[in-house]
Write a structure and sequence with these properties.
mainly alpha
Amino acid sequence: MANPDTILIKVFSYIPLTSGMVMPMRIGATDISPVEPILSLAILIITVVVGYMFSLSFYKLVS
């Protein structure tokens, strides 16, 4: 955490459940391109939608 340019911090800034905590630290502490936070947010949104669609399959009514 002391050095936000390590590979571990870079990887965790793209993992959906940890990106909300790690990516703001990277934005504030380093110079990153605007594409990286947008890509991280897109991965998070896609993961939420896929999880929603997966959980929806458990609650479908059989007619």
